[in-house]
Amino acid sequence: MNALVIARTIADLRAHVAAWKQAGERVALVPTMGALHAGHIALTQHARAHSKAQRVIVSIFVNPTQFAPHEDFSKYPRTFEADVEKLTAAGVDLVYAPTAEQMYPQGFATTIALNGPALADLEDRFRPTHFAGVATIVAKLFTQAMPDVAIFGQKDYQQLAVIARMTRDLDLPVQVIGMETVRESDGLALSSRNVYLSAEHRALAPVLHTTMQACTQRIAAGEAFESVLDAGRSAITKAGFALDYLELRDADNLGAADSAQKLRLLVAARIGATRLIDNIDVPLPRRA
User: Which long-range contacts (CB under 8 A, 24 or more apart) does 248-257 make?
Assistant: First the structure.
């Protein structure tokens, strides 16, 4: 196993990537904000097993531009040393951990304007500046690391759709791969924010997933979309959540579900002070 390299600058990162590519090796990037859990480690394993990458880079950068003023940027968990230990055990080749000054030097004045899945009236309804920050940092990471492939979890499904659309639209030479959400045994999607859940709220959190599963079964059986969604919204609210949305959408572009060839059910809700998001694939309704 190669020793894990920690790169702090673009020049150092590019020097390692250039050497790997000179040797004909395929490079994968897993962008993260740190506070790594088993889901992140699964992304690195997916990079090797399914994208055939010989080299795996994990970026760790808590990106300030994707947080709104009222959100938890200052409180976002930062566990760099523990993260490095996990990535070393996972056989990752390089951790890219730039400073804010490296990513956003004085005078930085550029962002990416978005449409399409970024304006789907889902996360963007509640976090209107979020995806511009995400798209800008991901575009920077792609051009800095020049990976052949980038792996993202499907838990942030709208984010994945935005990044895939941006990559296609800007002709960035990176294959974007979404990996299925990693879950706890009770169905709760793994998230760095789960550490904020109290014991009581942790016990209630799986309601989101079980409710989505119930909705999926009813939709697949042919029940009307809106009546199923209304029942799901009621169940989530009665469980003690403050619901932001439960929506059924076209899985490809997050548009209306009515004529979609693939369906996705997406949810966001708060339990206590913690906001959880999740989504699952929905089979098309059975035809009579």
Answer: 248/215, 248/219, 248/282, 249/120, 249/122, 251/281, 253/116, 253/117, 253/161, 254/117, 254/120, 254/122, 254/158, 254/161, 255/120, 257/225
| Paired tokens of 219 | 């939709």
What distances in angstroms separate CA 71 from CA 127, 130, 167, 267, one per listed residue?
Answer: 9, 11, 27, 19
What structural domains does the chain harbor?
5-179 (3.40.50.620), 192-280 (3.30.1300.10)
Cα 106 from Cα 285, distance rounded (Å):
53
For the chain, where are the alpha helices, taking DSSP H only?
10-22, 38-51, 80-89, 100-103, 123-126, 130-145, 157-169, 199-204, 207-220, 225-238
How much is the pLDDT for 73?
86
Which residues share a beta bridge with 279? 266
Angle between helices 130-145 and 157-169 (to 10 degrees): 50
| Run means of pLDDT, 10 residues per run, the chain, 288 residues | 90 98 97 96 92 93 90 86 97 97 96 96 96 97 98 97 98 97 97 94 98 97 97 98 98 95 97 96 82
Q: What is the pLDDT of residue 75?
A: 83
The question of whether 70 is a catalytic residue gets the answer no
Confirm if 229 and 219 have CB atoms less than 8 A apart.
no
Task: Give me the amino acid identity at 269.
Answer: A
Q: C-alpha 257: how far from its chain's center?
A: 22
Q: Which of 16, 40, 46, 130 is catalytic?
A: 40
**What are 127's two structure tokens?**
């976090």
The predicted pLDDT at position 76 comes to 86
CB 150 within 8 A of CB 30: yes
Alpha carbon 32 to its chain centroid, in Å, reads 9
The angle subtended at Cα 99 by Cα 133 and Cα 155, nearest 5°, is 40
